[in-house]
Amino acid sequence: MTIDTFPLWVTLPGTVLLALAGLAIVAGSQGVLRFPDFFSRVHGPSMSSTAGAAGVLLTSMLSSSAIAGRPMFHELLIAVLLFGTVPVNSIVLLQAALYRNRARKSRGAAPEDGAPPAQPGD
Predict the structure, then answer these.
(1) What angle do CA 37, 43, 45 make, to 5 degrees?
(2) What's this model's pTM, rounded to 2 decimal places?
């Protein structure tokens, strides 16, 4: 089999998965534009980009399996690394923003708009 002759069992699900992945990524991008502050902007794009990447990886697994004529699972390693690092990166970014807002508050400057209120004892 060549790339030019994908069977229907690869073409249809692959097309649907790629379209849904694109819609998920566009929806996450809209979240960046619509939400008012950094804390709410982080959640939407990280979740939707992960869902979009999952659709692309599943499509890649299907097409690789069809070309090779046997199941191909190389993309699972990419998925494990992606799904493991995106939440950690989001947590680190959120903690850095919280630290910045607390430092601004201790200097007497106003924290970023929409920042969560400081907890007692901070």
Answers:
(1) 100
(2) 0.71
The pair of three-digit structure tokens given for residue 66, joined into one six-digit string: 């069809």
Q: How far apart are CA 121 and CA 12, in angstroms?
A: 57
Tokens of 3: 């790339």
3-state secondary structure of 50: helix
Q: How far apart are CA 47 and CA 32, in angstroms?
A: 12
pLDDT tens-digit series, residues 45-84: 878 888 898 899 999 999 888 888 888 888 888 888 888 8
What are the structure tokens assigned to 110, written together?
């106003």
Residue linked to tokens 């902007």: 41
d(CA 96, CA 87): 14
Instruction: Let me know: does 44 contact 32? Beta carbons within 8 Å.
Output: yes
